[in-house]
Amino acid sequence: MVAYSPVPILDLQFPHLWQAEVLSARPLILPARRFVYPRDAEEVERGALEVLVRPGAPGLAFETWDSTEANFAQRAVQPFLATCALGFRDPVVPTGLWSAPNPTEICAVSGGYAYLIDTTAPEQFTMIAYRPVLQVQPVVNEGLLLFVGHRTILAWGRDGQAWESEKLSDEGITITSVENGVLRAAGWNMWTDKETAFALDLRTGMRTL
C-alpha cells in the first residue's frame, strides 16, 4: 500500500471531540484498531491517506495516551488508524481533514474522495458520492459542511446529508460568497459557453437566482 502525503488542508472551524494527525507513512507498529475506507482493499493499493485519530477531548495530546492505564482522565476509546483510499493524484482536488457539524465526526478527504467517519464507532462512515469532491466549504453559522462537485453541491449537517442541489453547472462551480444564509456562485453553461451566476438558499439548497 502506498501512502499519500501531500501538504494536507486542516480546517477545524466546527467544534470537535477528537484529535487527528495525518501521517507521512503507515506506522511500522500498527495500533490495535485500524479501518480501511471504503472497505475495498484493491482501491487503497493505488495510494491512501493515513490518519491517526484519537476520539475524545481535543485538549489531550497524543503522547499522553496510554491504552493500558485504567484510571486515565476523561478516558475515551482507543486511537485508531484510518486508511482512506486515494481518489486522484491531482493538486486540483483537495486532501486533508475537516471537522464536521457533528462534533464526533471527522471528514477526511484523500485526493478528492471524501469520507465522513464516526470517531466513536469508526466502522460507521459515509463516502460522499462525488468523484471527485472539488472543494470542501464549512458554513459554521448554518451548521453545514458543503461538498462541491463538477455540477452540484451537497450539504452535510449534524444528522447527515441535509440536501443536494439541482444541477448548477456543466463543468465546474466557483463559489464567490457565503453570507446571510445565501451561497452565491457561478457555473459554466455549455450552451452559452460562459459562466452563469446563481444563488442557493443554504437552509433548503433551493436555487433562488
Terminal Cα separation, in Å?
46 Å
Total number of β-strand segments? 16
Major sheet details: 5 strands, mixed
Question: Beta-sheet strand percentage?
Answer: 35-45%
User: How would you classify the quaternary structure?
Assistant: single chain
What count of domains describes the coordinates? Answer: 2
Secondary-structure class: mainly beta
Give start-end ranges of low-pLDDT stretches.
Answer: 59-75
Strand order of the largest sheet: 1-6-7-8-9
Kindly report the average pLDDT value.
89
Please count the helical segments: 1
- Helix amount: under 10%
Shape: globular
What string gives the helices and strands in order?
A: EEEHEEEEEEEEEEEEE
Radius of gyration from CA coordinates: 18 Å
How would you describe this structure in keywords?
Thrombin, subunit H, 2 domains, mainly beta, four-stranded mixed beta sheet, 209 residues, five-stranded mixed beta sheet
Structural description of this entry:
A hairpin with a 4-residue loop joins strand 15 and strand 16. This protein has a five-stranded mixed beta sheet, with no helix packed on it. A four-stranded mixed beta sheet has the order 2-4-5-3. Strands 10-11-12-13 form a four-stranded antiparallel beta sheet, with no helix packed on it. It is globular and about 55 Å long. The chain is built from one helix and 16 strands. By secondary structure, the chain is mainly β. The relative contact order is 0.15. The termini are far apart. The protein is 2% helix and 43% strand. The model is unreliable at 59-75 (pLDDT under 50). It folds into two domains: 1-128, no CATH class; 134-209, Thrombin, subunit H, CATH 2.40.10.480.
